[in-house]
Amino acid sequence: YTMDESGEEQITSSEVYMIISMLLSMIIYMFIAMFSGMVMQSVIEEKASRVVEVLVSSVKATELMFGKIIGVACVALTQFFLWILLTLLLVGGFSLFGGMDAMSGDPAQAEQMMQMAGMEASMGGMTAEDMMAMAQDESEMGAVLSTLKDINWGQMIFAFVIYFALGYLLYASFFAAIGSAVENEADTNQLQMPITVPLLLAFFIAIYAFNAPDSSVVWWGSMIPFTSPIVMLARIPFGVPAWELVLSIALLVATFVACGWASAKIYKIGILMFGKKTGFKDLWKWLKQK
């Protein structure tokens, strides 16, 4: 917050950006963790019930894995776009019935509202402090709305969809491979540790980015593919050069292709393996098989 001429605290643009950054990071973290976990759980259920043996007799194991991943992704994106639609409807309703334009910072409208507030105050017995508080609230709302109008929402929504899709595909392929290697969910704890650690690390770097979006730790976190889907979303509201976005997305795509290929090899073998507890040595052995 900053201090205005009267000594009152006012919200700043950087704090609005920080709030948006925090929301984006939390949403993409929850989406990736939740829907990737759904993929793993679905693979485990199919393997435990032996349904997968029937499925792989009709389609390739690799096609089955990516079909499951893409199917869950479509559900996730549908849910996300429904949230956007609902938000737009709510904002539109507020703009229509709440007089958003009257609080957008137009001096003439603001003066008119102050005159109306003064008339209501004289009729309702409001004190000068009450009027000052009302004016302060209107000023803060105008500052927030002005900041929101300056944000490139098209770029932000596009980046969110791209990073969510690629980040989800990357982690979902890992979780699908883990699900194929075990027979029940209790055996996944050890195998998913190397995957959940980068995801948690990305979330903590994103929290640090709220206060230092241009620091070296945050910059590298937004470039490394295992953390970039979350960290880059935390940086975007503060402004990111186009070349950094392109480089980050290119690295993420290349990493997904390589990791997706490795996960598919593990899935193809692990989905039909029963009666043995799988460890990292087994995964490495499956990965080296031709």
Question: What's the helix and strand layout?
Answer:
Elements: E1 2-3, E2 9-10, H1 13-48, H2 51-55, H3 61-97, H4 107-124, H5 128-150, H6 153-181, H7 189-209, H8 216-221, H9 228-235, H10 242-270, H11 280-288
Antiparallel strand pairs: 1-2
Helix pairs in contact: 1-3, 1-6, 1-7, 1-9, 3-6, 3-10, 6-9, 6-10, 7-9
Using brief descriptors, characterize the structure shown.
single chain, mainly alpha, two-stranded antiparallel ribbon
Could you please describe the fold and organization of this structure?
The chain is mainly α. Helix content is 76%, strand content 1%. The protein contains 11 helices and 2 strands. Helix 1 packs antiparallel against helix 7. The longest helix has 37 residues.
Write a brief structural summary.
This protein has 11 helices and 2 strands. With 290 residues, the chain is mainly α. The protein is globular and about 60 Å long.
| Order of H and E elements | EEHHHHHHHHHHH
User: How many strands?
Assistant: 2
Distance between the termini: 60 Å
Mean pLDDT: 76
Broad shape:
globular
